[in-house]
Write a structure and sequence with these properties.
The structure is a homodimer of 348-residue chains. Chain A has 348 residues and is of the alpha/beta class. Chain A folds into 3 domains: 57 residues, Orthogonal Bundle (434 Repressor (Amino-terminal Domain)), CATH 1.10.260; 128 residues, Response regulator (Rossmann fold, 3-Layer(aba) Sandwich), CATH 3.40.50.2300; 132 residues, Rossmann fold, CATH 3.40.50. A 6-stranded parallel sheet of chain A has the order 2-1-3-4-5-11, with helices on both faces. Chain A has a 4-stranded parallel sheet with strand order 7-6-8-9, sandwiched between helices. A two-stranded antiparallel ribbon of chain A has the order 10-12. In chain A, β3, α8 and β4 form a beta-alpha-beta unit. Chain A is elongated, with a radius of gyration of 27 Å.
Chain lengths: 348, 348
């Protein structure tokens, strides 16, 4: 009999095939045959094995395969936040793709902080993962050094190659945001405010802002520093930014926002100031999450291929792990979606 | 030199402390001392170790500890969907709590299908996790048998004990929904429609619907089968349900919805029918996610303690894993939040 201490140290030992064999009174080879090729085993034997499997809660242990192939059958993903549906849903698509291959997903969130991402990266690698999905391309050289030194397959979502040799699965944020700015100009707006996400350490926010400002400038609409507010991607920050942008004398007739959450916040801020959307103010978003069509009027926005990026990341990472060769990067298009929140400015 | 085949089979071998020692030209004991008590090592030695650590991408390997303690330093979580911010944010709180202890989070989504949850449960257990977080109490006896046979600590979130001996960390869905119904009645509504989530296999949806119908019945408002629609928790289903409930002759003056997503969908449906909220129709939600204050008018709803449930699940599971003893269950209150979407019915 084992001592108490020993028992306490092993409370969660997984039942093994030996345990099943012992309980069923058969050999481990018979257990294995009974599970893998049941029609080659007599019914009584099969039943005995089945009962033992259920009683012990035994499941064929992938752990053994891990040791054999040096694989953990785990993919890690580090996303900025689960609070925004856009990442949560991409993560879900990734997980569903991996589940088809019995690969499980480890998840961490970095709160948009590159240094936190790096800590999580080290933890995941120390723990052992077969591959890693990250958001965006902007991070320290050290983070990339860690990844390449470990030779771990990794995919960068939401961005395009940008001269990096890595596997990217994304879309052109600059171009998509430029398209929004172009449409806003087409409707006749000239006094325009921008509510951007924080651009530090975030290549997607930087690219969107660049797309907006360069398009406006090319049309002769030059934004002053007071016309652009950078803030966190929350309703509250979007609302506060809108109130600030709309409080001046020569207030904007359109607000271009870095994502749908900021745009929904901006709409709330505008409503509180008694402004009518789109009669008094046009507002645009980015992402096309549920929120975009839940608000009224519905948001003009950009449809980000979040599910496709999540699913493709799973497929390409598994392909890389299997073949040992880095697959081709993927670039999706992000579609402009016109809805009622964008209209011509009222004359005056 | 290794053969190609050998190299191919081991592309992702984690660098070991021996590799670092070899490269730095010191003993493994010196590497260990250099990492753990750097002030006890000469600067040149420390630098040499540092260079080797960086070059190899070495991180102190938790794997060794896993074997020693039979722990995987992993907690699994199976939630219905990441599409709804309420679960995603709870998951994030859980992950942040676990990260403080260098425990990582494995994630799977069941799409509200108990049989899919059971498959994921088996996969996670086969893979090896120290504990598991699940949503709700309603699942097959077999699923509970698997969990208890394995002696894996597990926590059930979002529900209260309900006579089960398991660790639950939740709130009283029946009571919270009953409170919403009571407030709707107080405002003078008598013609009331209910848009519920699917109740099959979902104890939370069942409890909320029970809380609503029993409160209404106690006040003499008896719902017919045509007054209650069960649907999936999506904007589209909420909208379709509202259109159906509002299309009859004696249409409801209030719609009580199973969550905020359904309520936002119902508001959209009402708007399309030309109804004004709350003048023509009151709408209530449940959860108090961002969506609730992004829509206009803002939703009367119930604030679900999602972050606290996520964080507490992490704490209690780690406590259980450490002590070997199942901790006490936790019951939080869910607060009624009054906002502009609820008002008296217009006379007529």
């Amino acid at each position: 009999m084992k001592s108490d201490t020993e028992a306490k140290n092993r409370p969660y030992r997984l039942p093994t095939i030996e345990d099943v064999a012992r309980l069923a009174g058969v050999s481990t080879a018979t257990v294995s045959r009974s599970l893998n090729t049941p029609d080659r085993v007599r019914e009584e034997t099969r039943n005995a094995v089945e009962v033992a499997v259920k009683a012990l809660g035994y499941t064929p242990n992938f752990g053994g395969q891990v040791l054999a192939s040096r694989r953990t059958n785990t993919i890690g993903a580090i996303i900025p936040t689960m609070g925004n549906a856009i990442f949560a849903t991409a993560l879900q698509a990734l997980q569903e793709t991996l589940a088809l291959r019995k690969v499980t997903l480890l998840v961490a969130t970095s709160q948009y902080a590159p240094e936190q991402e790096q800590v999580q990266l080290r933890t995941m690698l120390a723990r052992g993962v077969d591959g890693i999905a990250l958001i965006g391309t902007e991070r320290s050289a050290e983070a990339y050094d860690i990844l390449t030194a470990r030779q771990v397959p990794f995919a960068l979502l939401w961005s395009i190659p940008d001269e990096l040799p890595y596997l990217t699965i994304g879309f052109d944020n600059t171009r998509a945001a430029a398209e929004v700015a172009r449409r806003v100009l087409e409707f006749g707006h000239r006094r325009i405010g921008v509510i951007s996400g924080m651009t530090d350490g975030n290549d997607r926010a930087t690219a969107r802002l660049r797309g907006i400002t360069s398009t406006l400038e090319a049309a002769g609409v030059v934004l002053g520093p007071e016309d652009v507010i950078r803030c966190h991607y929350t309703l509250e920050d979007g609302e506060a930014a809108a109130r600030r942008l709309l409080s001046g004398a020569d207030r904007p007739t359109a607000l271009i926002c870095g994502n749908d959450v900021l745009a929904a916040g901006a709409m709330r801020g505008a409503r509180h100031l008694g402004l009518n959307i789109p009669a008094d103010l046009s507002v645009t978003g980015f992402d096309d999450i549920d929120l975009a069509t839940a608000v009224s009027p519905a948001l003009t926005t950009v449809r980000v291929p979040h599910k496709r990026m999540g699913a493709s990341a799973g497929e390409r990472l598994l392909e890389w792990i299997d073949s040992g060769h880095q697959p081709q990067s993927l670039s999706y298009s992000a579609e402009f979606v016109f809805r009622d929140s964008l209209a011509p400015p009222s004359s005056g």
